[in-house]
Amino acid sequence: MEESVQVKNNEDSIKKSRSVEKNKIQNETITTELHFELLKQYAWLSSAIIGAVVILIQLKVLTFGSKVYIPLGCFCFSILNSLIAQDYIVESLTKGKTIYDISKKVYILRNFSIFGLGLGVGLLANSFI
């Protein structure tokens, strides 16, 4: 009787460990996709703001001068960091690494990207004042 209970407990723990492993793989996939999509959105938003700046210059709302160069550079910096992080994710995954192995570098690049975007928006808003 005692052995059958122990065998049943072992079978339950094996099922749970398989379930945990399956969830870990699914979470890793979702985490990777979310990181990639977030970086894509940062790059898209920065390029959309660059397009808006070009339109504002054509409408003569903004003058193309030194107050516009630095925000445009910040937006380009944001796009560049987003693309580098996306490329790093793809390269690392093709080499067999997981998103958890590369999360620190992706985190740094992602923060540089949002920093460039935020700084560019702030400097651009300052040029209207």
TrEMBL record:
Transmembrane segments: 42-62, 68-85, 106-125
Protein name, UniProt field: Uncharacterized protein
Keywords: Membrane, Transmembrane, Transmembrane helix
Source organism: Pseudoalteromonas tetraodonis
Superkingdom in the source lineage: Bacteria
